[in-house]
Amino acid sequence: MVRLKRQVKRQWDVKFEEMQFPAVQKGLLFSPEQWQELDPFILMAEDWFKRGTFSDHPHRGFQTITYVIDGRVEHIDNSGGYGILEAGDIQYMNAGSGVRHAEEAVDDDIAHTLQLWVNLPRNLRSTPSSYQDIYGDQTPLVSFEGGSVRVYAGQLHGVEGPLKPLVPLTLSEITLSKGATFEHHIPENHNAFLYVTSGEIMAGENNMTIKKNGVAQLTFNESGTNDRSELTLTANKRSKVLIYSAKPTRERIVPYGPFVMGSMEEIRQAFQDYHSGKFGLEAK
Q1: Phi-psi bin for 222: left (phi > 0), alpha (psi -120 to 50), beta?
Q2: Of 24, 37, 219, 261, which is the most exposed, with the fewest CB atoms less than 10 Å away?
C-alpha cells in the first residue's frame, strides 16, 4: 500500500505580546479568521497568566483542549466540577449547549497553557456540557530509539489515548534527542498541524525547518480514508513537538466572543440565553 507522505504546507512563527496584569503574556498560534483552512480547528492560544485572568465566563457550541506547559491550573465549573492540572496534563471540555466555568492559576503560580478550540458539528452543538481531565503520567508512552511519543488521543503506534472527544481527533507529544528521526502516523483524511514547544526540527517530506514557537500546517488527503499517513520528524536539537489532527466538518461557523455558532442569529441567541440565566449560576 502506498501511504500518503505528509509535507509542510505552510509554517509560521508565533508572535507574543505582554498583557495587562493579571495576564502576563499571550500569543495566538492561529485565529478564527483562518477557520476554513484549518477546519475543524478554530483558534489556538498560548497564555501565561496569574489568578484572576480567566474567572467565571460562558461558552457554547465548540470544544476546547487545554494543555498545561507549566504551573498549575484550577478548573471550576457550575455543574460542580473541580480539578487541578499540572505540567503535562490536559483538560478536554465540550461546551455544547452552554457552560460557565473558570480556569485559574493556583495560588501565586504563573500558569502557562496552550488552549485549542475545536468545532462541534451542528448536530452536536446542543449536547450537554462535559469535562475530562487527562493526567500526563497516566497517558500511554511509546518509546523508540532517540525519543518517545505520548498519545493523548486517538489510536496511534499500538496504543489508544485516554482523551475521548465527541469528534475523532489525535493528539500526541513527541520528544526527540538531537539527531533522532521518527515517523509519526496520522489518519490521511485528517487536517493536521504541529507546534514546536522546544528545540528545532525538520518536518515532512520537504524537510521544512521549524524552530521553537513555530507552527506548521500539514498536507492531507481530505477525500481519503482513515488509513494512516506518515509524517517524518528529525530533531536538529533536543526537541518537543505537539501534533494535532482531526477530520474537517466543512460546516460554516461564526465565532464571536466566547461562542461558536452557525449564524449571527444563533450568536445573539447565545448571548440572550446567557444573560437570562439559562447557562446557570456563576462558577465559583
Answers
A1: alpha
A2: 37
Domain with 113, as residue range(s), is 8-246
Q: How many CB atoms lie within 10 A of CB 259?
A: 22
Cell 483542549, residue located: 65
The CATH number of residue 177's host domain is 2.60.120.10
Which ranges of the chain have pLDDT less than 70? 1-2
pLDDT at 217: 98
Best CA proximity match to 191, nearest among 35, 49, 86 = 35
**Host H or E run for residue 162:** none
Cα four-point dihedral sign 70, 153, 38, 214: positive
Residue 256 contacts residue 264 (beta carbons within 8 Å): yes
Structural domain contains residue 113: yes
pTM: 0.96
Taking residue 36's Cβ as centre, other Cβ atoms within 10 Å add up to 10
According to DSSP, the residues that pair with 47 across neighbouring strands are 26, 113
What is the DSSP track for 121-144?
Answer: PGGGTTSPPEEEEE-GGGS-EEEE
Number of domains making up the chain: 1
Does residue 29 form part of some domain? yes
Distance from C-alpha of 130 to C-alpha of 162, rounded to nearest angstrom: 15
Supply 29's cell numbers. Answer: 498560534
Let me know if residue 136 belongs to a domain: yes
In a domain, 90, yes or no: yes
Look at strands 130-134 and 155-156 and give their pairing: unpaired
Pick from 164, 153, 139, 165: which is nearest to 243 by CA? Answer: 153
Distance between CA atoms of 189 and 228, rounded to whole angstroms? 9
- 3-class SS of residue 80: coil
